[in-house]
Structures are given as structure tokens and as C-alpha cells.
Design a protein that fits this description.
The chain is an alpha+beta fold. The protein folds into four domains: 17-97 and 191-216; 100-135 and 148-188; 220-264 and 300-400, no CATH class; 404-500, Immunoglobulin-like. It contains three helices and 29 strands. The strands form six sheets. Strands 11, 12, 17, 18, 19, 20, 21, 22, 25, 27 and 28 form an eleven-stranded mixed sheet that branches. The longest helix is centred in the N-terminal third of the chain and has 42 residues, at 146-187.
Amino acid sequence: MFTRLVILLLAAPASLLAQSVPNRVAVKPPLTRATVYLNGTALEHRATVALAAGLNRVVVSGLSPRLGTEDLEAQWGEGAELLFIDDDDEQLPPPTPLYPTAADSLSRATAEQRTLEGELDGLKQEKAFLLANQTLPSGTQANWSAEVQRGAALMRQRLPTIQQETSRAEARLAVLKTDIAQVQPRASQTSSGDRQVLVVRAAHAGMVTLTLHYFLNHRSPWLPALDIRADASGRAVRFVTRGRLSNRTGLDWQRLPVVLMRYEVADVKRPELTPWELDFDGGDHNGEGRVDEYVVKGTAKGHSGALATQGTRYEVPEPITLASGGRRELTLPPVSLPAHPEYLAVPRVSEQVVLQTKVSGWEGLQLPDRASVYHDGVYVGRTDLDDRAFNDSLEVTLGTDPQLVVGRAKLEDFSGNVPLSDKRRVRLSYQLNVLNRHAETVHLRLLDEVPISEEKEIDVKVLEASGAELDKRTGKLTWLLTLPPGTNQRLVFTFQVDYPKDKQVEIINHRVRISNPKFR
């Protein structure tokens, strides 16, 4: 009985020791996917790991050297539970510089700094030694020897040299200190290396799948650009997205599946509505809040057909092989959409007529702020895009058309007092002229305007508009014209302004003379 008890007591510590020392496993999961955003890259690694029942310390290597422990997400298959990620392991190598070139430059500069400081100290001591021995002991002045004369010559020669070498070393040391101060922040950034330790508890021994995700923040790994290509008629438009893909992860990509995302990763905050308070103190309140620069007119009736479904996510069809630090150009499949061409003329601003096309079904596209425009294979220029439009058409400018000629002439500029009134009146009349030199019928949107009053004492009245649609808020006049080939059309609009005689209102530009219209 006693012997059996001793055996049990001896066996117990071994059992406890087996439970307290975790099983150690090393794994290097291959890179399985890269998801590239506009401001960084998300990487995925995956492997199958042999775990023992109980605690396991899984040493993971082959990760990006730019990875921080706080950015790592580890997912284990069924039967395994991640307890924590341990970045303090004695068997792991010490942290490595995140930017080795900067760290190497800092090391060389620091070594040179120590050398120069040693030189300066030696020069200082040599100068002090020479100056301390420039006088002779008393009673020996009459017995100068050749040795004393050589010492004097050495003093005359060496002291200027010491001064020159000291100035050179001090100047170089100042430059080194500036360089060190500039490179120090970048060189001091280190990573935990390409290794992480995962402490895992397994319910039973077996093979378990490990999936790792982390995000590396860097500038413009995917830099997209958009080409808008319209045919000669402007009725068919292709949206072609191309861009530069950069591998800034610190790992080589070997036939790696890549997904391109057309937005940035950012913190998402829930908007909060706070009370709009008014008081007499003029305190710091929310006020009106955000206000758009435009007012919505009309309604969007939607589409009977399908919309473009380009989306924010695009999987590159072929795996990508790209060395760390490498770049390559990618072109995404084009999206073709129907369009409705229309000409736009604003003769008050320009005598040129612009061809624009209205694209339908564009809502599924992810548009940048600017795009390069091509019309019938010819580069037109750059255009601004706004995907926050509230209607169902995206307007794309395709350039100017000299085959449409517009003119704007002033027919009347009356100015005088209103009888039996304290008012003064100005009456202006303009004629707009349009000529279609195309061999086909065209549709033209013609714009002009009348002034709007910002004072209640100034009264503006439209007397004639030739069928234009008037926006009373902005004073804009709009004509939608259909012009057969070779025809011209004349439009007249007239307005008058009444205002107090004792006030000055600048309306008429007297330097503009009244002239006959072009097509009269």
C-alpha cells in the first residue's frame, strides 16, 4: 500500500507539468488572398495546424513585416479556441526595423558621429598640451637649444592645422546631427517580425484550420482612373476603369487571388442629431448644419431595364504575381450603357455649343471625381463627375461642335423715369439666334437668364420669353429646341426692372452696342 502511494505521488507532478507546459507548434501559412483598398491592403493567410489536446502555443511565421499585433485577427476551425496573442515570447527573435534602409542609415550616421566626437576630443587635448608647453622654465631662456626652436616651429605649424580640422569636424558633426534627427523617427519603427504566437486551447487532438486576416495601411495601393468613351453619335458610352496596382505589403505575391475595392477603409461613426438651440449670446451652436449647394428639381422615375452592376468589389480574373514593392497596370472590363446625346448652348457666357450625352443606368457604377473623356476615338479632355445626382441621367460633356452656331444680340436698352412715380425703369430685350449646319436634326438645350431681385424695392418683370421655362428662384430661362438640318431659329426675351429713383442699380452695360442679329 505504501509503495503504491509513493508511485502515485511521483506520477502526479509529471501529470501537472504536462498540463502546465503548452504544446509548441510552428506553422507558416501561405498567403491566400489580397484585398486592395484605396488606402491599404488586407491580407489573408490559411493553413491546417496539428494541435494537441489542451493548450498549444502556435508560432506563426511568414507574415508581413509591417504587421502589428493589434491588427491581427486569427480564426480557428471547430474544436479550437484562441485565448490570446502573445507578443512576448523568449524564443521569438527581437523586433526588426520596419524600414531597414532607414535603420542602416541611422547606424552608419551614429558610428560616424562617434568617430568625429573622438577626433574633436583628441584635437582639443592636443591643443591644450601644446599651449601648456609654450613657456620655458625660469633661468633657461639664455640656453635655448635647437630642440626649443623646433618646438616653436611645431607650434606655429600645428595650431592652425588643429583649428582647421576642428572646424571641419564640427561642421560635419552638425550635418550628421540634422540627418540623425530626420531619420530617427522612421528608423526607430519596428515590427514584431514576421512571427506571432497564438495561444490556443483544443478540445481534442487533431488537424484544425487556421485563417489569419490583417490590414496594412499605406497610400494608394490601388489608384484607379476612369475613361469615358462615346461613339460618334454619343448614343453608346463605355466606362473603362484602369489603374495602377502596387504591392506594398512586404511579401511577394505568387499567383495570388486579388480583389480590388473602390473605397477607403475608415472608422464608421453613427451620426448624432443634437438640439438646434437659439439664444442671444451667440454661442457655439450647431446652426443650420450641412447644406447642399443645389436644389432638386423634378423627379427620377427609375428604369424599366437593368442597371449596371459594377459594384464596389472586383475580383481580378487571373491570379497576380507581383514582387514586394512592384507595380503593374490593370484594366477592368468595360461597362457599356445607352445614352441620349444633347447639345447645350449658353450664349450669354460663350458662343461655343457643347455636346453632352445623358447616360442611363449608371447608378451601379462607382465613379471617381474626374474622368478622361474620348469622343469618336479622340481625346476630349478631363471632366468632373458627381455620382450624388438625384436624377436618372449622368451628364457627360463630349466637347464643342462648330456645326452649331449661336449668337446673342441686344435689341433694346431703354432707361428712364416712370411717369407719375418715384421709380426709374430699365427695359432690356435680347435676341438669341441658332443655326444648325448638320445634315441631320439635332436637339439643343439653350440657356439664358433674367436678373433676380434681392431687395423688395427692386421689381423684376419678364415681358416676353418666347416659350422659355423660367426658374423664378434663379432667373434661368431654358429652351428645348429641335432643329432640322440647315435651319435657324430666333428667340426673343424681354424684361423690365423698376427701382427707386434715389437708388443706383447697375443693369445696362453701356459699352455693349446694339447690333443686328446674325441671321436677320
